[in-house]
Write a structure and sequence with these properties.
Blueprint lengths: L53 H7 L74 E3 L8 E7 L10 E9 L2 E11 L2 E9 L2 E8 L4 E7 L5 E7 L35 H4 L19 E8 L9 E8 L1 E8 L2 E7 L8 E6 L6 E11 L3 E9 L5 E3 L1 E2 L2 E2 L2 E6 L2 E8 L2 E9 L5 E12 L2 E4 L5 E6 L9 E3 L5
Parallel strand pairs: 17-23, 20-25
Antiparallel strand pairs: 1-2, 2-3, 3-4, 5-6, 6-7, 7-8, 9-10, 10-11, 11-12, 13-14, 14-15, 15-16, 15-19, 17-18, 19-20, 20-21, 21-22, 22-23, 22-24
Length: 467
């Protein structure tokens, strides 16, 4: 049994040192140096030493020295003969030759280096309502959370008519934007999906339920990738599973629009008296929501089958090692169910378990786990004897996520506090008896006073797959 390792990010702030040495005999100045924090994103200027002025003063101002002969103590005894001609100095001119001044050295001004934003220049965001909150995802796969925000280009989120919208992403300090296709009255970020280690951002058009996928490139610039068409306006969101701001429309997660063909051989009833019962082929009129070929036995061979479909109620059917079984999944809400993948989350139950989205709404998805007993019959796991339901997603002031690992599952959640910070908790669970998970002692954690940058992402991390 493995426990999920938790790593806390430790940030060290280094004190800046300034050392000044006063010049006395040598007239030297030592430039001050500062060591910035390793997380700083700006550059510090450097101090330049002052140039000595003595040479310039000496060149500009000449100096003269007058020499006075010593006084003869017996001047009267000295007679100057008139016979000896007295030498006279040549007349001198009172005008001095013009001083030669070296031409001034032109001052060279170095233009500051131009900072080029790799994705373009963008202004400040307009004032936005509480419902349009930023979401945090690891868009570049470096282990650090990056922010994503949708906003109307007009700056008026309360406009009555459909308008153009934009998504802004800040990845490692690089700001980028991309237009969201089509016009809409209301747009929001639904979730994030991990693809090759990077998280793609899914944006919902609440008017028609279209889902647009965006991702960042190597320069950190957000780009539009694809659109999954919706099925028109969703139903009344009052039955949503999470509490949201009623002024923000909440759509459903649309069902797949492309029919999935089911191989009748794999879903045909097993020969009577089948250990799990007899099952008719899935009706052709049923709506298939997922169809996976997977390894349920745990032998490394993907030759088993999991199908989720709607036939009056949602059902999950599996064919494991040739044995067909099926369970109904009630109370799905306004969403649908979909098998996401398999992995060995249970410690006691045989083979691999199926991780399934068992319902939810626009802001959060409900996750359930299904296993098989010794006869190969499928069942849904419980948590302390009650229904096991964990949520992945975020809405105004709340977020939650889930992890699945070898013989272990865990969840975490956060909530906005009155002082503007967040408090949160997390815990891990293990299969203590066949088909039932329970709390793993000593695994719980509680934190408060958190900033939004310190929150774990509201994502599903299960054996390498997500929502």
């Amino acid at each position: 049994m493995k426990e999920r390792a938790r790593s806390d990010t430790k940030v060290q702030d280094w004190l800046c040192l300034a050392l000044w040495t006063d010049m006395t005999n040598h007239h030297h100045h030592t430039a001050a140096r500062r060591t910035p924090s390793r997380f700083a994103h700006h550059h510090l200027g450097r101090l330049a030493p002052l140039a000595a002025a003595a040479v310039l003063l000496g060149a500009a101002c000449g100096s003269s020295t007058t020499t006075t002969s010593p006084v003869d103590p017996d001047a009267t005894s000295r007679v100057v003969s008139t016979d000896v001609p007295v030498a006279t100095d040549e007349p001198t001119s009172d005008s001095l030759a013009p001083a030669t001044t070296a031409p001034a050295t032109p001052t060279t001004t170095i233009a500051p280096a131009e900072v080029v934003a790799p994705c373009g220049e963008f202004g400040d965001l307009p004032p936005l309502p509480d419902g349009l909150v930023q979401r945090l995802f690891d868009t570049d796969g470096d282990g650090e959370l990056d922010s994503a925000q949708t906003y109307p280009r007009s700056g008026d989120p309360y406009a009555d008519d459909a308008q153009a919208w934009t998504i802004r992403v800040i990845e490692n300090g690089v700001i980028s934007e991309a237009p969201i296709p089509d016009l809409a009255i209301s747009v929001g970020i639904a979730t994030g999906v991990e693809v090759d280690g990077r998280v793609h951002v899914i944006v919902d058009n609440y008017d028609n339920n279209d889902q647009h996928t965006f991702g960042t490139n190597a320069d950190g610039c957000i780009e539009f990738l694809s659109t999954e068409p919706g099925d028109g306006p969703g139903p009344d969101p009052s039955d949503d599973l999470v509490v949201t701001n009623p002024t923000i429309p909440v759509p459903t997660i649309p069902l797949p629009t492309t029919p999935i063909t089911i191989d009748p051989i794999l879903v045909a009833p097993t020969p009577a008296p089948g250990p799990c019962g007899d099952f008719d082929p899935i009706p052709a009129a049923s709506q298939i929501t997922s169809d996976l070929t997977v390894d349920l036995v745990g032998d490394g061979v993907a030759d088993d089958r999991v199908v989720t479909y709607l036939d009056g109620v949602y059902k999950l059917r599996s064919v494991r090692n040739g044995v067909t079984s099926e369970v109904s999944v009630p109370e799905v809400g306004v969403s649908s169910i979909r098998a996401l993948g398999v992995g060995n989350a249970g410690e006691i139950s045989v083979g691999n378990e199926v991780i399934v989205r068992t319902g939810g709404g626009a802001s959060a998805a409900e996750i359930g786990i299904f296993g098989h007993d010794a006869d190969g019959c499928v069942f849904q796991f419980t948590l302390n004897g009650s229904e096991l339901e964990m949520y992945v997603g975020a809405t105004i002031g709340t977020s939650s996520g889930m992890y699945c690992g070898e013989s272990l599952i865990a969840e975490w959640s956060y909530e906005l506090d009155a002082d503007g910070t967040y408090f949160g908790s997390s815990a891990a669970f293990f299969e203590s008896s066949a088909g039932d998970f329970t709390y793993l002692p000593g695994s719980d954690d509680f934190s408060e006073g958190l900033t939004i940058d310190e929150l774990s992402p509201a994502t599903l991390d299960c054996f390498g797959f997500g929502l």
